[in-house]
Amino acid sequence: MLNAIRADFYRLIRSRGFIINQILLFSILILTIVTKATGSIGVKVSDSNLPQTNPLDHLQWTSPVSAQAASGIASFLIYFGLPLFIIIVGHDLTKKTYKNILTNGLSRWQYFLSKFGVFLFMLLLQFIFYYGCIMITAGVRTGFGQLDQVFWAKLASTIAFQYLNLLAIFSIAMLILYLFFSNVGAVIASVVIPIVMSITYLIYKNELISHFNFQPNIDSAWGLKFASPTYLQSCLACVAVILICNSLSYLIFKKKAL
User: Fold this and answer.
1) What distance in Å separates the CA atoms of residue 151 and residue 107, rounded to the nearest whole number?
2) Are 56 and 105 in contact (CB under 8 A)?
């Protein structure tokens, strides 16, 4: 199992797609700091009667302010997480090379766990890279500001909430991947399902649906109070989706014929 994990890390780090992915992400973060412009992808859940202004526009973008601004566009990590997902999880399944790995003594549970574990770790590193780059760049350019205990606690709770929501999206993609052995299907699920959930919430305005409205939840994470009912209920919804989707994924994979 350790050999499989090392092989996944080696293939990822040596992949040209991974390097290009990180360069593009870094470029977007630099552009965000320089222009003080933030954008979003997908359906924006907001009140159209209110003026759409960014309260951070009039502030000096020090490290804490830039981190708060970056949290509002963190749903970009859906798209920058897809290459990681495809390289780590999708490659062996779609190329059928998982059969060779299983015949060399690795059990299906060990195979599934190693793939999922490596992806979990790399997705967490992606968040560290994301916030680290933008805070260091802003700090060097404008100043590091007040990086006190309150800020780090807020940043940690924001990343934890965003991480769970992002992982819930990729868990749905994981289920589609193991069901159809299709990278295309998994990518479509990752992009379309958050949009469908956002549209559904806009139509019905149901509180239960809001907990599964993953993409807007990622972008609005900074505004949530840690351990508030909304924060906890949304986290529980994410955990439920993660457990159900990955359990089904493993059961499907377990029954697949070599």
Assistant:
1) 44
2) no
Going by pLDDT thresholds of 50, 70 and 90, the confidence category of residue 200 is: very high
Q: Compute and round to an integer the Cα radius of gyration of the chain.
A: 19
Cα–Cα distance, 202 to 194 (Å, whole number): 12
Token match 């490290």: residue?
Answer: 63
| Contact indicator for 70, 162 with CB cutoff of 8 Å | no
The CB density around residue 254, as the number of other CB atoms within 10 Å, is 12
SS3 per-residue string spanning the chain: CHHHHHHHHHHHHHCHHHHHHHHHHHHHHHHHHHHCCCCCCCCCCCCCCCCCCCCCCCCCCCHHHHHHHHHCCHHHHHHHHHHHHHHHHHHHHHCCCHHHHHHCCCCHHHHHHHHHHHHHHHHHHHHHHHHHHHHHHHHHHCCCCCCCHHHHHHHHHHHHHHHHHHHHHHHHHHHHHHHHCCHHHHHHHHHHHHHHHHHHHHHHCCHHHHCCCHHHHHHCHHHCCCCCHHHHHHHHHHHHHHHHHHHHHHHHHHHCCC
Question: 206-258, pLDDT tens digit by residue?
Answer: 889 999 999 999 999 999 988 889 999 999 999 999 999 999 999 999 998 76
| Nearest-angstrom CA–CA distance, 227 and 153 | 12
Q: Are 109 and 247 in contact (CB under 8 A)?
A: no
- Do residues 42 and 195 touch, judged by C-beta distance below 8 A? yes
Above pLDDT 70, what percent of the chain? 92
Virtual torsion, Cα 18, 82, 127, 225, nearest 10 deg: 170
Tokens standing for residue 198: 């956002």
Cβ neighbours around 194 below 10 Å, total: 27
